[in-house]
Specification:
Blueprint lengths: L10 E8 L2 H9 L8 E4 L6 E4 L1 H5 L12 H7 L2 E4 L2 H18 L4 E4 L2 E7 L3 H18 L4 E6 L2 H13 L6 E3 L3 H10 L10 H9 L5 H5 L3 H7 L2 H10 L16 E12 L2 H21 L3 E11 L9 E12 L2 H15 L6 E12 L15 H20 L10 H6 L25
Parallel strand pairs: 2-4, 7-8
Antiparallel strand pairs: 1-6, 1-7, 2-3, 5-6, 9-12, 10-11, 10-12
Helix pairs in contact: 4-5, 10-11, 12-13
This protein binds a DNA duplex (18 and 18 nucleotides) through helix 8 and strand 9.
Length: about 425
DNA sequence: TCTGGGGTCCTAGGACCC
DNA sequence: TCTGGGGTCCTAGGACCC
């Protein structure tokens, strides 16, 4: 009789990662595009934010400016989509739901990735589960996944990257065994490691640390001191020590930002005010959706980083007298900040609005020198904002405030040209089936 | 001509207090 | 009047992520 080997006590992580996520979402409703080159573009169709395997094979890097690949697009008949976040978010939620039916714990890390911690499972069981996850998501949602399996999150990320780029692994790669782990580390440059960005990559390479393996051999206390505690943790993780904590999502969100590049450069203060006010209104909407109040608002405006024109970037903040979620308060603060930052002779390309210093309630220390609103005024503010949100939930920009006017009227600020439809979240845009 | 939009976390430095 | 160190809190800015 076969004896059961004891259950391992070691923890393991599965990292499920959607392949070319935005492209895969578009293909769910355009199965005819399977096998064809497809890209998804950023806001204003500025640059490439997702590429199908066929486009990657053509050598188009992530983030390429769209205008630079026009030629390739024509030659290879690349299909282009403007990003359609309503659709991607909805598909993402469907993927996560399927994961939750198959795994006890799912830690959503980003729109297209989730970690699933596992205890006391043999490698074979982990592999079996991973293949089952991939098959179920493919059948129920239609999106392809890759899965990495490892004793730490950092290694699981590296393993899933390996699974994606080496087709012989059939979309799952496990480095639970020491030997494979070492091979994975030796084969990957440090730039592939989660937590090593452009800057660290340069600094570490100057020290002769080239591969993930090199980094894994470094002394943790010394590197923590020389660089940061974050890099120290990364090194431990590469050695299979599980030490990166993941914050529980949303409840701790500390700030809300809204920023966009304008379609055309803006030079007039009034135009900038309009743009920034529109962003502030969007940020305020998100704040109310979280049921929170903000005490601080920051506004930034900047010129292009490119070309020879004068460069300028500045931001400023305002602490509000009391926590609020009222768009009108944010709009007057935004206007004040923009006018304070504005310098003539600059061609502005971008504005951003950041709300922070949140509270869950609106209670505040009253201050002898600050005029605070009465309970009656606060109640009215909630009512007005509630009405605004419910009208706009049905159809965007049904109701907006005077300061935002220009934008909605003339569409100067945003204008993507390749929109796919919101197939799953908007009744007017459901997919059609022809007989 | 045309170059993303969100977020989080960490660190350094200044202000202030004891 | 001058000298000092340590702690806390806040903010700005950098680095990183997808």
């Amino acid at each position: 009789m076969e004896t059961q080997s004891p259950k391992p006590s070691q923890r393991a992580y599965l990292l499920a990662d959607c392949n070319n996520f935005f492209v895969s979402c578009e293909r769910v409703f355009r199965p005819d595009l399977e096998g064809s080159p497809v890209v998804v573009l950023s806001n204003n169709d500025g640059c490439v934010v997702a590429r199908s395997a066929e486009v990657k094979a053509l050598g188009v890097p992530m983030g390429s400016p769209f205008f630079k690949i026009q030629d390739l697009v024509r030659r290879h008949h690349i299909v282009c989509f403007s990003s359609n976040f309503d659709l991607y978010l909805d598909i993402s939620q469907r993927v996560m739901k399927v994961l939750e039916t198959l795994c006890e714990e799912v830690q959503v890390y980003s729109v297209d990735e989730a970690f699933m911690p596992m205890h006391g499972m043999h490698e074979q069981e982990l592999m079996g589960l991973a293949f089952k996850i991939i098959k179920t998501v493919r059948n129920h949602v239609g999106v392809p996944l890759s899965i990495g399996i490892a004793p730490s999150r950092t290694l699981a990320k590296l393993a899933s990257h390996h699974a994606k780029t080496h087709s012989e692994n059939r979309s799952v790669y496990s480095v639970m065994q020491q030997g494979l782990r070492q091979r994975l580390l030796r084969e990957n440059p440090i730039s592939e490691i989660w937590g090593v960005g452009r800057r660290l990559n340069e600094q570490l390479q100057d020290e002769g640390i080239m591969t993930a393996w090199d980094l894994s051999l470094c002394d943790v206390p010394a590197m923590s001191k020389r660089y940061s505690v974050v890099l120290g943790r990364t090194i431990a993780e590469l050695n299979g020590v599980d030490c990166v904590e993941l914050e529980p999502p949303t409840t701790t969100q500390a700030q809300i930002m809204w920023s966009r590049t304008f379609k055309d450069r803006l030079t007039e203060p009034e135009d900038l005010c309009e743009a920034a006010c529109n962003y502030a209104a969007r940020a305020a909407e998100k704040l109310r959706a979280l049921g929170r109040y903000a005490r601080r608002i920051s506004v930034g405006i900047r010129s292009s980083y490119f070309g020879n024109e004068p460069r300028y970037a500045a931001s400023a903040s305002l602490n509000l007298d009391y926590p609020t979620a009222d768009t009108r308060t944010f709009l007057s603060a935004t206007r004040q900040l923009v006018l304070q930052l504005y310098r003539p002779g600059i061609r502005y390309m971008k504005a951003e609005v950041l709300l922070s210093d949140f509270t869950d309630t609106r209670s505040f220390q009253s201050d002898l020198f600050v005029a605070v609103p009465s309970d009656e005024e606060l109640k009215r503010s909630d009512q007005v904002m509630g009405t605004l949100d419910s009208l706009n939930a049905k159809k965007r920009d049904t109701v907006y405030l005077g300061a935002q006017m220009g934008l909605v009227k003339d569409k100067r600020f945003t204008n993507p040209e390749h929109f796919s439809r919101r197939y799953t979240t908007c009744l007017d845009e459901l997919p059609e089936i022809s007989g």
